[in-house]
Amino acid sequence: MEKAHIYITRKIPEVMLQPFQSAFSFRMWEKEDEPVPREILLEEVRNADAVMCVLSEKIDEEFFLAAPKVKIVANMAVGYDNMDIQAAKRHNVILTNTPDVLTETTADLGFSLLMAVARRIVEANQFIKKNQWKNWSPLLLAGTDIHHKTIGIVGMGRIGEAIARRAKGFNMDIVYHNRSRNKEAEERLQAIWLPFEQLIQEADFVVSVIPLTDETYHLFDELAFKKMKDSAIFINISRGAVVDEGALVNALESNQIRAAGLDVFEKEPIASNHPLMNLENVVCLPHIGSATKETREKMMALCLENIDSVLRNQGPKTPI
Ligand code: 8YV
């Protein structure tokens, strides 16, 4: 019998495929410095029974029409704003994501970014490497305190909660906004639910961990930045499009807020001439929230386990 065929849209280590090689045939996009072009993707999935993809691939009506045999699309991410769930239902295709395995790693990165911005770590590193350290002076590279400040977490899901646990260790006051109340975080971490408007006015650090949906698109807009403290630090580790980037640039340029730390952008990869790149009070990262070797291996393994399970008619492990 012919083996079921799996297409993988990014190069992953061969060793990850070994446990599945006797059961399935694989093809993957091998180039590491460019994404698979859309027309090649649509051609490749024509005979695929399953697809493993990343966030940059739009899994939409056009995709499903091009992939008539596909039974499952496994997204190597917890977020799935790249996938059209209604279209998947219409075509009877199972969608999966990678929750839980990346929670702590992404929270570590979020907190690192917050600390890097508050304590000006990146500037300080540049300063010393550019041989600018000539003297000690009291306000040299003085940042702002983290401990005992108020962190405002927008989106109190798994990652939001993991950030709140870290904040607790720094003796921060925790306020959060979420559609539904998170009683566990309220009891265990003394986190206080606030309406969004109030949170952005009260928080010293506003951290976006909220998924991108029609409701959260450009949630952080001109008005939101106006309402924040002028000493506020804005951190985004969720999706770029929850922020109106033009409004953020204006807010940073006009010192409406102090600084920002961004792991995500409206268009990724972001252009090197984007106005955000010229601002000194911004630390930018190339969407590396879950990027540790351990966690990326767990994410890849979970995608493959989901595919294996569905193709063996045993159902998905982490369905969307
Ligand atoms: C992914 C992410 O690694 O899980 C998510 O939603 O944003 C990251 O962890 C990245 O999106 C690649 O797909």
- CATH T-level fold name of the largest domain: Rossmann fold
| Through-space gap between termini | 31 Å
Quaternary assembly: single chain
Hey, roughly how much beta strand do the residues contain? 15-25%
- Which of globular, elongated, flat, extended, rod-shaped describes the shape? globular
How much helix, percentage-wise, in residues? 25-40%
What structural class should be given to the helix and strand makeup? alpha/beta
Average pLDDT works out at 97
| Element order: H for helix, E for strand | EHEHEHEHEHHEHEHEHEHEHEEH
Question: How many separate domains make up the residues?
Answer: 2
Task: Report the CATH superfamily of the largest domain.
Answer: NAD(P)-binding Rossmann-like Domain
CA-atom Rg in angstroms: 22 Å
Which second-level CATH architecture of the largest domain applies? 3-Layer(aba) Sandwich
What count of helical segments does DSSP give? 12
Low-confidence stretches: none
Bound molecules: 2-keto-D-gluconic acid
Count of distinct strands: 12
Text of the CATH class of the largest domain: Alpha Beta
Across the major sheet, the strand order is 8-7-6-9-10-11-12
Largest sheet: 7 strands, parallel
